Amino acid sequence: MARLPDGERPPADGTLPPEALRGLGAPERPFGLYVHVPYCASICGYCDYNTYIPGDGATSGFAAMAERELDLARAVLGDAAPPAQTVFVGGGTPTLLPPAELAQILEAIRARFGLVEGAEVTTEANPESVDAASLAALREAGFTRISLGMQSAAPHVLATLDRLHTPGRAVAAAREARAAGFEHVSLDLIYGTPGESAEDWRLSLETALEAEPDHISAYSLIVEPGTALAARVRRGELPAPDDDVLADRYETTEAVLSGAGLGWYEVANWTRTDADRCHHNLGYWAGGDWWGVGPGAHSHVGGVRWWNVLHPTRWSAMVEEGRSPAAGREQPDADGARLERVMLAVRLREGLALEGLGAGAAGVAAQFVEDGLVERGPLEDDGRVVLTVRGRLLADRVTLALAA
Length: 404
Ligand SMILES: C[S@@+](CC[C@H](N)C(=O)[O-])C[C@H]1O[C@@H](n2cnc3c(N)ncnc32)[C@H](O)[C@@H]1O
Prior knowledge:
Elements: H1 18-21, E1 31-37, H2 62-77, E2 84-91, H3 99-112, E3 115-125, H4 132-141, E4 145-151, H5 155-160, H6 167-179, E5 184-191, H7 198-210, E6 215-220, H8 228-234, H9 243-259, E7 263-266, E8 269-271, H10 279-285, E9 289-293, E10 298-301, E11 304-308, H11 312-320, E12 326-330, H12 334-346, E13 352-353, H13 361-370, H14 376-382, E14 384-385, H15 389-393, H16 395-403
Parallel strand pairs: 1-2, 1-9, 2-3, 3-4, 4-5, 5-6
Antiparallel strand pairs: 6-8, 7-8, 10-11, 11-12, 13-14
Helix pairs in contact: 2-3, 3-4, 4-6, 7-9, 12-16, 13-16
S-adenosylmethionine binds at residues 40, 46-47, 49, 90-93, 124, 126, 149, 151, 188, 190, 219, 221-222, 224.
């Protein structure tokens, strides 16, 4: 079940401290909008995102309420609000909304902020929630990128994950998206599901590649507390994912994807070319600014983070009254901000610059080279820490040691 962090109480009108707004739109601060659509046709047992199965007609007011929060965002950010470089509509299952409502939300973003030329506009989608006609309508509305939740090509794995689509439907949806003119098509996969064999995983990767995506995300299955999957593991109905198996699957992922011409750019993400990277996520990882619209959405502007109330009814009521739907906020101190910077940068192929870290960091990084977790070249050339395949498996350990 989705949970929110603790934080201070945000002001009811959503205003931000003036220093957070200073420099908004500067080149080193990419600006994006995230929209959280909190609805799914059914809830997958492993998922702890903020999602609800909507009752009849429950989704129909969503786009109008998203417009209200965009009004608030525009008022809080003021005339300094830059045009959006990226828009990401995630969920939930955004494509449970009719394409016209997703178009309405995108139009509302255009009207209040504008989009830079060539802006990346992504929607997530479940394979069974789109067809050739809806994809054409989304492309026509200005969506440029689609991220499809394929998860696996093995029917028994999809069943354990409670997915409603066949493996073939995910591949067909990716092809339909290309035919509709989407510039970027991404597939999400999950490895390490109980009952998945090494062959099942290899088949999933190969089937995903047949769809010719330019981006693949591969996540190890996380048994999130409070989910139906966690209850099944606790009752002994399913075994917990095994760390050695997960490591093995990751190594297969790297071998199969790099063999097919896709390179990693973040620990869980591979692309054909640098242009195919998800620029919205790169903004998150580079400490950029983004406003998150919708129930439970998180935002970050100029070092201030905040998060919205979780429940759609409560969120709607607050935005309808013109109040900020934020439930809490925080401004991480210097140590917290440094740990976060290290944590995010170390996961990127570009790597983490040692400069600015503590005095012991260079020695720690050199030891990681000896241990085979960090590449020697970039560290010696310009002092950047870039993880090896084995290092990517242990990214958290490397982060903690470098930030200490
Ligand atoms: C916001 S979810 C996508 C939601 C979309 N409705 C779908 O299921 O296709 C983004 C991705 O996160 C991954 N994910 C979600 N929960 C996960 C978990 N517990 N363990 C591993 N990956 C997870 C899945 O690959 C999913 O496609």
